[in-house]
Amino acid sequence: MNKVALLSKEEKECLRKIIAKYPNDENLDLTAYIAEVIGITGEHVEEGWYNQDINSTHITFCYMADTDTEHSDDKNETEEYYIQVDVWSKADCFLLKRKIKKLLKMAGFTYFTGNDDYEQDTKIYHKAARFYFALNNAEEE
User: Fold this and answer.
1) Whole-number pLDDT of residue 109
2) Which of 37, 45, 124, 136 has the highest CB neighbour number within 10 Å of its CB?
3) Predicted local distance difference test score (pLDDT) of residue 67
4) Could you give the C-alpha distances from 21 to 24, 124, 126, in angstroms and in order?
5) Which residue, 7, 10, 46, 38, is CA-closest to 107?
């Protein structure tokens, strides 16, 4: 049986370049990082929620929460950001959701839950995936 890889060699190389471009420190533009990583899929990506003006498959992401963690010497050393990524499509896109999960996990995100729905009123498949990302804060002098 011939298996097809979820990520191509080119997609893995693109991801390596994005990871190198965005070091995990207090200067990280997390929104841009998320958009670029998910953008490897080739689908339209935007921050926010379902865009009814887009009639093709698209991906959205939004921040759900954030918290300061790993406190020492009255400083927090890490910030955790919780995000939701949503895939919106007229076709079931199970493999696309799996690709997004793989990309984000390889980029340092931790997957913790998700769900899949078919919205009868819009006839749209809605696949959600939730992640958190630990952002390292630079040591203050």
Assistant:
1) 98
2) 37
3) 84
4) 10, 35, 31
5) 38
Cα 77 versus chain centre, distance:
22
Instruction: Dig out the tokens for 131 from the structure.
Output: 């992640």
Judging by beta carbons within 10 Å of its beta carbon (0-12, 13-18, 19+), is residue 106 exposed, middle or buried? middle
The two structure tokens encoding residue 54 = 């887009």
Query: What are the beta bridge partners of residue 133?
Result: 81
Residue 107 falls in which region: left (phi positive, over 0), alpha (psi -120 to 50) or beta: alpha
**Residues 6+ positions from 108 with CB-CB distance below 8 Å:** 19, 24, 133, 134
Phi, psi of 111 (to 5 degrees): -80, 135
Mean pLDDT across the chain:
88
